[in-house]
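Build the 3D complex.
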Amino acid sequence: MADYGGSQHGIARTSRAQAQTADQRKLELDRIEKYRDLENQVRSYHAQGDYSPDVFQLTTRLLRLNPEYYTIWNVRRRSLISGLLSKPSHGSAPSRASQSSSPSPNITPSSANLSPSSSVAIQPSREVPTVGRTGTTADSCDSASPIKEHGEESTENEQQQQQQDLDLLISELRFTIPLLLEAPKCYWIWSHRSWVLQEAIGRLQRAAARRIWEEELGLVSKMLFKDRRNFHAWGYRRHVVDQLEGPTLGGISRVESEFEYTTQMIETDLSNFSAWHGRSKLIPRMLDERGADDEDRKAFLDEELGMINEALNVGPEDQSLWYYHQFLMLNLVSFVGRATIVPKFNLEERITYMSREIEGIKELLEDYNNIKLIYEALLDYTIMLCQLEERQPDASERADLVVWLQKLRELDPMRNGRWSDVARDYGLQEKITTPAAIKV
Amino acid sequence: MDSLSDTIWDAVICGTGLQQSLLALALSRSGKNILHIDPNEYYGGPEAAFSLQEAESWVASLSDPNSQNNASNGGVFRAASITKPEATSSALKFSRSYSLALSPQLIHSRSELLAQLVSSRAHRQIDFLAVGAFFIIKAPEDPDHKAVLTRIPSTREDVFLSKAIPVKAKRGLMKFLKFVVDYDSEPQTEAWQPHADAPLTEFLRKEFKMEAELQTYIVTLTLSLDGRISTRDGLAIIHRHLSSMGVFGPGFAAIYPKWGGISEIAQVACRACAVGGAVYMLGTGIKSMQTGYSAEMELELTNGVTVKTRRLVQTDESASKKVVVSRLVSIIDSPLNSLFAAVVEGAQKPAVAVIAFPSGSLKTSTGKTWEFPVYVFAHSSDTGECPVGQSILYLTTPSITDSKEVLEQAVQSFLGAVNREQVPHSVYQLYYEHLGGSAGSRTEGQVFNFPTASPSLSFNDSTLKVVREAWREVLGEAATGADYMVFQDREGAVDDEEMYD
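Done.
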């Protein structure tokens, strides 16, 4: 549909300002009538509790016109559960047996932003015993058959059912794609996807379920390609990766490929808080999994420092880069009680690295002399170095601090309180003058 | 034929080059009687794209003294020849699987041309492809080694990733890129306006302390034919390049229309005017004209018919042409995939790559250093200009003695650099010289003359001004208050009916 920016009943919100011809108006009225007709049909089935395949077809048509009509998504799901998806009459599918031993894969708060109303969407269906979060079905209430034991071979009938379920779930996911492209922020579409993914875990063999989740990862990558800094998408990605790595999907660690993914994102656009943040979170586990020894860890730190310094060299005004640099520095100075990159560094090594970094950042001042983040970093790191060495700043450091604090007062007058505090801590307050005219 | 001579035409447009075609597009909804003719049997004029057979006919016509295309009759091309090495002649596929562009040009994403194509809705019929990375081809220190292709950085991420630039030079380059983004405001204007007419390279050296290598990168981004572009013009083009970066997708700053570049735009524009009621006649030119007797002038066409029209729009053929470039079009028997890799994973694969031999990097057989750049536009088969498995190189350099030889050498050097293990072959070469660059438009009574465009590697928006002038001439009073190149989709153009069935 052209101009789909979120519509009400199939009529584009961006109204066409120019006068419609009589023909165009008639066309629009026809469309409205067709839509209303469709809607009435679905609602009448729903009112009778009829969720036969016919209703399913109707929801397909209606949702294409208006994916924000969440009641219809519910009707569709009921239709899937009550007829189209198989009823596991002999009990659980193989992958479900292990579900009880793992925490219920609820969507974590961080990715809940993506579909905060998913619980709202499911709630109406809880009144009727249909599929809830943990995968119980309507039929298990009245089924007297014992839950099938994990490991028993599935019969040919079961295999066929699973194949049908797989095809159906895949087709559901495909159905949402064009809808997502037009309305990427429509929560109901995302919640339907999440529901399908959960069903995959509940109903399919582990390998098939895993493939579906892997494809989800592909979709998230596409989303992040379109908007690299969409932190909802990064959160959703972590949720998908967690599932893939978890016992339910018999997963293996994806830490290396996720790390590589952050590298790619950064190379596309240096200014990406989420990518740098994600990177920092992956490092401790990645080094552990590599079985990195002290030499490996030192080499790794050297590489990361090299990379971030190259980045700062071309983008010193970018805060996301300084945050990552700070993360690396903290690995050097703040290492008690936490996993760091180089836990076995002795004091001398830490001092050497810090001093080298400070000297490197000073070089940036040759060409970038009005960027406050550089002065801030120099200030913070010099103080950190002194604390590490348990000493006060020496004379040349004090001279440097004066210059930097002076610059910071000019460039960041909003934080004058802080700069004054620092000056006072080191007895430098008389040396820093209030600039006569603050440069705007 | 009777209706042709009976109609009082509001405008006869002669020639279907880009300027005339854009005029046709601009007039396509005006309801005016337009007769659009072209002495050639093809659309596109100097911006046409040819099949192999059309190229051969064209080359023949250039040496025919009776042909309108002949330079002595006002044509803008001369000295054309085709070479097909015997050994690889079997690699050539059938004639129509090629569409060789006579004037390949890339269009920056922020170009006014694209804005007009969109507002006039003509863009719906054009397939736009991405123009990818720009490269410099560096001569090896050791003459036994092959030349190396180096990507030119134009974004912060490019500079970050480049392994060829020292740390401090990177900072200098970043400062320049930031300068250009705001180059037309204070205080930047104070820095460059004193040097406005001096060569850009001098400005870079003096004000940014840039070394020769980085200067070459920047000048190449301007696509300056002689490498001596002025500071004023150079900064304008780089600004356009930088502000176009990423506009239509990550990693690219310019686009190229599929199926022959500018010629495709000309064809779409003419089609739009035809839909609007204009009459099109190829293979028809003007034999003679009579003016001054009434509001209409009389034109005798080459097909014997005489028509009456209020205005004639054509290209000024008598104008002196200054700029001469030599061009070489070479069909290559390899897809040259390494040139067309997507810059960013998931991004659109580029169909065009730009490679430059910097000034002074090539030598003639007599050992003379070639003091101009040689530009190579590499087009993949995605452009529709050649069959899958092959690619096309378009080379351009100023035309002086030995330019043909230098271009041929450049092809070999380039092929050696692009794939060291299995050097691809050139299976076809079309050489010609392209004149151009008369002054502005000229109106003589009822005749509006378009200037002859300067051969240029990137589309220059100033071309559009002249088209608008012509439009005003033709419409007269009706032009005031009318929106230029702003149309609505014709009914039925956008189909979203299916979902309601």
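The radius of gyration of chain A is 29 Å.
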